[in-house]
């Protein structure tokens, strides 16, 4: 195991692993009272070697970021959604990766199965997670913390390879690939898009002034970014919803950056809103039937119903609103097939 704090050590390690087929990966970070997370460590493990890379101590990490962006290796992560939040801030976009949390769900585990439970049930390996909530910004790191951080990647490749065989036997490998890659793409699509889609599917969507909603979402996001404070500190979701219903509210685009952000999302959302259907009693009945059919399918195939589609995603599908996970081809085909049965 390498604990890397110097650029020369980093470059040597990256050369050593550049031809690896699989690389287990994890990231430790801190974010309690800020908009941006503060990355602390990136852990990388191959079949032959592993390293804990200290982003705080490292003088230059550009070689690492270039490697991650260009590597043809398949990166194995577990519960990667938060990791991609960090990667987006660091301008990292992996070419190939798999999320073992998604793989576990396809194999019959509950949604968001923790790594320690997965390793225990699939590989009979126990790992200690007592330091899970440690402050990763404190230096120097103790040997115990370094070993703990490394444990999160040591068995990821073995875990994935065992799950891969099961998923291929189930003929659902395309589910794993599509949903894994969507994790990265969906984070990059942004929080504003997700919030807007949820507002559009709400029963009281007709009460919302969507121009105000877009302006408020953009203003809150930009303020949070500029002050590096959590969104909810700038304006709570409850306040945002209430203000978006106020037709007399004026939200000036008082900066070029805010105006550009508003224009970007306005053009996207106009297309979505134009194509969206209006909620009706007929659609509500269809929603009930489709949710029941999805539940039956999930039970039959031993898969969590929420993995196939949450109640919100079912409603959005019927209203022709393109949610993030609905971009997976397998999910569109399955929902379309079940919707025909529900008619």
Q: What brief labels describe this structure?
A:
globular, 343 residues, 6-stranded mixed beta sheet, Nucleotidyltransferase, domain 5, 3 domains, 17 helices, alpha/beta, 57% helix, single chain
Description of the molecule:
The chain is an alpha/beta fold. It folds into three domains: 188 residues, 2-Layer Sandwich (Nucleotidyltransferase, domain 5), CATH 3.30.420.10; 76 residues, no CATH class; 62 residues. The chain is built from 17 helices and six strands. The protein is globular, with a radius of gyration of 22 Å. The protein starts with a strand and ends with a helix.
Summarize this structure briefly:
57% of the residues lie in helices and 9% in strands. It has 343 residues and is of the alpha/beta class.
